[in-house]
Amino acid sequence: MNILKWLIMTALFVSACSTVPMTGRKQLSLVNDKDVLTSSFQQYSEYIKTAPISKDKAKTAMVVNVGRRIAMATDQYMRNNGMADRVNGFKWEFNLVADPAPNAFCMPGGKIVVYEGILPYTEDETGLAVVVGHEVAHAIAKHSNERMSQQVLVSVGSEFVNMAVDKQSMLVKTLAPTIFGLGVQIGVMLPYSRAHESEADHIGLILMAMAGYNPAAAEHFWQRMSQQGGSKSPAFLSTHPSDETRAAKLRELLPSVQKYYKPVY
Question: Which residues are catalytic?
Fold first, then answer.
């Protein structure tokens, strides 16, 4: 029986792997994108109906502008590199909500929410591009899908994986509220692993650079975020690497990312 389990798991990982854009990391992909997007859009629609949408027109326009520039750069990169199918079904949307928490979150399919409370730390469009690029990176890296796939293995056991993924619509509906981070944790950034956060930092740098924003601003933004008062880190930082580790990694990545940077003004 142990040999059978091993064979099932080996076949599963070989047949259900995809590649993350820009980093080239192999990831587990057991859930159907269409099911994930359908569930995500439904939950996002319910959230946005009751969300305290910002009434600040200037700040809202800035969030939308930065989001659209990064989304356009992302879509172009995907088309140029034969990965357009990875964003099939995406419906980019960028909203600013009137919440004082220094936070932002992403849902599958390109649904990005920024809180007013993070804007004092972003300071300008370039700083905001760090946040939006990071969130868009989570979307195109499909970290939610990956976490859901990992949860399938934890929840159902290896011998039932194939049975589970054959009924994905029900599976996604069951796992989505937890994976997407909504429900009782409305408005809290998805609790991705530190590996996912570091990957989103890396991809986010490239995306903001391609959109015409200087990626060198990322390290300074995270330094400002780390200097917040109080003893408890905000949700936006709760699962991220330590400040020292993050700053060192950003400095290490910058030379390789600068080649993508083409200022637009």
Answer: 135
